[in-house]
Amino acid sequence: MPVARVDPRLLVPVDGRVPAETVLADLAGEPTALRFEGPPGEAGRGQGPPASWSGVASGRAFLHGAVALTVGVGAPAAVRDAFDLYTDDAATADGWLARFEQSPRAAVAAALLTRHASDDVWAGLVAESTTYSMLQTGPEFEAWRRDRCPPSAPTDLDRPRVRVERGEVYEVVLTRPGRHNALDVAMRDQLHAALDEARGMRGPVVVRGEGPSFCSGGDLAEFGTAPGPVDAHLVRLSRSLALTFAELGPRLVVALHGACLGAGVELAAFAARVVAAHDARIGLPEIGFGLVPGAGGTVSIPRRAGRHRLLELLLGPDTIEAGTALAWGVVDELVPRARLEERAREVAAALR
Question: 121-350 — its CATH code?
Fold first, then answer.
């Protein structure tokens, strides 16, 4: 799929038109990444922005509307935010674009979702779910389903997925440790019921997980098993954990440890406070499936850390460490694993 390297000067309008429009038009209909980068060795010449970036701020409207993933390499600070991703390191851009080539349709869809995000949580969740369902019918998700090694069938079908502990703090505990608290339909329904009860009560709420991980994301054994993308879209919205987490957000604390992947970080990011153990590993693996986040991540994570960080999680390394998540604003504080549950309760009590 096309990754086009574009001279930044093509963002400067000529006779009222941005020349980069022609580059994108030549690739119309194909999921495209546009890498804007000046000539090799240009950085560091003299003072101020490199010459090739002069005047590019006038190309913001093009970048805002481009149906492509846009990457700025070496862009000056004044224009960086106009790109979907930006870096001064060419090798970092190489990594992002290698991931883009794995699932270009999903990557462009994610860029458009985050670039034009709504301030309304519900509208954002509808847009995310619609895009997710559309991608489930696409060739990238189909290729993943065809080529993957199917996970072993669950052996815990009759076991509870969630436990509620009622006290000064209403605690919801994920209880599927043998599968790293992977989110299946049963857990979704039980978690939704527990949080729905919490919505009708006053006081702080803590969500945490038992076992080696908080939540390793959606259970891959169930991926693509719904009757169809449209039905899945309607169920996803009618039983929206993301909306419930968002509504509880001002009095919600989530405690993260171990693997916090996909839904395991997307839902948590709606909370007023996210406390993480030092062993937490955070990631969004959906691009590898040919999908965008489907548990609210395109809404929750940009609100905490900005849209660029969301795309870095999608197109960057498989996971980031807890310290990086703290620096990005994805989590609010780090504690030793042995202190995690106690600290989450302390933080929740302060939300009263």
Answer: 3.90.226.10
199, 244 contact by CB (below 8 A): yes
Whether 222 is catalytic is no
Q: CA-CA distance, 321 to 279, in Å (whole number)?
A: 8
Look up the pTM and report it. Answer: 0.91
Kindly report the length of the chain: 352
Using alpha carbons, select from 128, 123, 99, 125 the residue that is nearest to residue 112. 128
For 10, which DSSP code? G
Q: Catalytic residue among 286, 312, 321, 341, which? A: 286
Domain limits of the chain?
Answer: 3-102, 121-350
Mean pLDDT of 81-91: 95
Could you say which of 266, 312, 342, 346 is catalytic? Answer: 266
Query: Catalytic annotation on 333?
Result: no
Start-to-end CA distance of the chain, whole Å, equals 52
CA 335 vs. chain centroid, Å, equals 23
CA-based nearest residue to 97, from 1, 224, 29: 1
pLDDT tens string 221-240: 777 666 677 878 888 888 89
Q: How many helices (H) and strands (E) does the chain have?
A: 15, 13
Q: In what helix (H) or strand (E) does residue 256 lie, and over which residues does it extend? A: strand 252-256
Pairing of strands 252-256, 259-261: unpaired
